[in-house]
Amino acid sequence: MLRIMGVTRDHKVKADLSLEDVRIGHYIWCWVDFNEPSEEESELLASFFEFHPLAIEDCLHVLQRPKLDYYEDYQFLVLHAMNPDTLSTVEVDLFIGSSYLVSYHKKPLNEVDQAWENMLNGTRNRKIWSQGPYAAAYMIIDSLVDNYFPCVYSIEDDLDELEKLGGRESVEVLLNQVFALRSRLLKLRRTIVPMRDLMYRVLNSQHIQGEKEPRVHFSDIYDHLLKLSEMIDSNREMTADLRDSYISLNSNRMNGIMKTLTVITTVFMPLTLIAGIYGMNFVNMPELEWHYGYYGVLTLMGVLSIWMILSFMRRGWFK
Prior knowledge:
With 319 residues, the protein is of the alpha+beta class.
């Protein structure tokens, strides 16, 4: 679907325009949104807008890393929208020219729809529209970044629950949950850190030097991305501490088990030796003919076991 809106010279917004309206130039600037475009609509990127083939290739093919490319009379931005449930990403491409903004995404996105509705309904200051296509670009990027926060907050809630479960679940279960959280944090980091670097490039771009208002808005988005990246790093450190704690706890438990088994084995070693000696059944073994030999050997084994256990207790092996 192709939808178009334009901003008139008195800063009013009109929707449901055609490409012919964009060509005629009755509007200060226009926003053209390619929402789930067909092949014929995608061809308009080359035939109507005459964008660079490399930029068009980035739109049509594999999911790209967030980036900013400069062309002769427009900038090309690759952004990522994120699904809060699955943390999967959807690419959003923006072409920002002096009199137009072209957004391209292969799947419907609530973030883009929200920015579209905000612009139509005038829920923001209308003076923003006088700033040109950067106004709509800011609204789209701001909506994308705002949608990252629920993803991070969800992981923080899971971390709090994991800390509460510390003494009620097995170490294996806790470690599996920690590694799952670290995997989710890694997915977030792969999107948020490149987006942060992208916004840093936009802020330092010579193409918007002197444009005070757009820089203020993009600086606000950059601050949000800085906060998100710091939250992710903090959560990664917390999961690393939890992982090390659970591994140490598991090692301590294993050491306790090994110590108990070692004590039991040590106690039974002399008893096994005695039983092995008198179990050989040689003919010339005088003790075998002794009337009280059986009871004497059992007594010896019992006394030896008690002595060894008391000796281990004095050395603190059972603490």
